[in-house]
Design a protein that fits this description.
It contains 12 helices and no strands. The protein has 250 residues and is an all-alpha fold. The chain is elongated and about 85 Å long. The relative contact order is 0.05.
Amino acid sequence: MRQSVLIVVSLLLSLGACARQVREAMYPEDRLALAERLRSEGKCLKAIPEYEKLLSEFPAQQIAEKAQFNLAQCHKDLKEYDLAVSGFEDFIDTYPTSPLVDDAMYMIAMCYLEQSPIAERDQTMTRKALDELNLILREYPDTDLKDKVEKAIAKCRSKLAKKEYLNGRLYLGLGYYKSAIIYFDSVLHDYPDTPWVGPALLGKGMALAAQGKTDEARAVFEEIIDRFPSTRIAEDASRHLHQLGGEKKI
């Protein structure tokens, strides 16, 4: 009886070992499919070792290209941004002619953008994202990602413009009018396509008025009324204009 039990146990262990060997000997396509399924199910922690094993076993296979891209994508999904950026950069270096290079560049930009804080804080990550997005349009002007890239660029530029505007407001409130105007002008000159142009103009007009530069301030308030008719900011400009002794219909 004891011998029979030992035989059964031995058979089960052998079957387990065989199963592991079969799993270890998976074809690259099957391992990639397994990793893809795990990733699609949100199980990136389980997908990552499958991608890594695929890359180590089949580094010269064409299938490794997709595996390396998706490995980096897994790190991004897990918010492991440094690993993701490094992975996408390695992908670009390894497969510079791949049709996924612009996708990898976009993913790098998204890694930076997802780390970008609110406008009141340091905007280093926003600038990194913007640089990467602009690079995509320069190197791949016909990319299928063009619409997404342009929307992301607009988001970055708006946040950077808001940062400059808020700096201007801070100096305006502190009474450092020359410094305030420098920041407001930065919005006007560097980010004229953002929603912060009107507020920056208003801030500049207020700073000029506070310096006693009445004529210059009046010209700025009138510009606001002309450019942004029937808006709250035009009403604010009209009020400031009235305080300077001038009137202009809004």
